[in-house]
Amino acid sequence: MTKLVYFFEEGRSDEKELLGGKGANLAEMTNLGLPVPPGFTITTESCMNYLKTPSFFDSDLKDEILKAIDKLENQTGKSFTKNENLLLVSVRSGAASSMPGMMDTILNLGLNDSRVQSLAKLTSTAFAYDCYRRLLQMFGDVVYDINKEKYNLLLQKMEIQLDKQVDYFEVDEHQQLIEAYKQLYAENNIVFPQNPIDQLTEATKAVFKSWNNQRAKVYRELHDIPHHLGTAVNIQSMVFGNSGNTSGTGVVFTRNPATGENKMFGEFLINAQGEDVVAGIRTPEPIEVLNDILPEAYTDFVKYANILEKHYKDMQDIEFTIENGKLFILQTRNGKRTAKATLKTALDLVEEKLISKKEALLRVTPDTIDQLIHPIFDATKVENAPLLAQGLPASPGAATGEIVFTAEKAKEYHNLGKKVILVRQETSPEDIEGMIVSEAIVTSRGGMTSHAAVVARGMGTCCITGCEAFSVNEEAKTIICGDQKLTEGDIISVDGSAGNVYLGSIPTVIADNDQNLQVLLTWADEFATLKVRANAETPQDLATAMEFGATGIGLARTEHMFFGEERVLEMRRLILAKNEGEMKLALERLLAFQQDDFYQMFQTVQDKPLVIRLLDPPMHEFLPHETTEMEQLAKKLDKPASAIKKQIEQLQETNPMLGHRGCRLGITEPQIYQMQVEAIFNSVIQLTQEGHNIVPEIMIPLIAEESELTFLKDMLIDKIEAVFQQHEMEPISYEIGTMIELPRTCLIADQLAKNADFFSFGTNDLTQMTYGFSRDDIGKFINTYKEKDIITQDPFQTLDQNGVGELIKIAVQKARETKENILIGICGEVGGDPKSIPFFQKIGIDYVSCSPYRIPAARLAVAQASIES
Ligand code: PEP
Ligand code: MG
Question: By its UniProt entry, which PANTHER family does this protein fall under (predicted)?
Answer without folding.
Answer: PHOSPHOENOLPYRUVATE DIKINASE-RELATED, PYRUVATE, PHOSPHATE DIKINASE 1, CHLOROPLASTIC
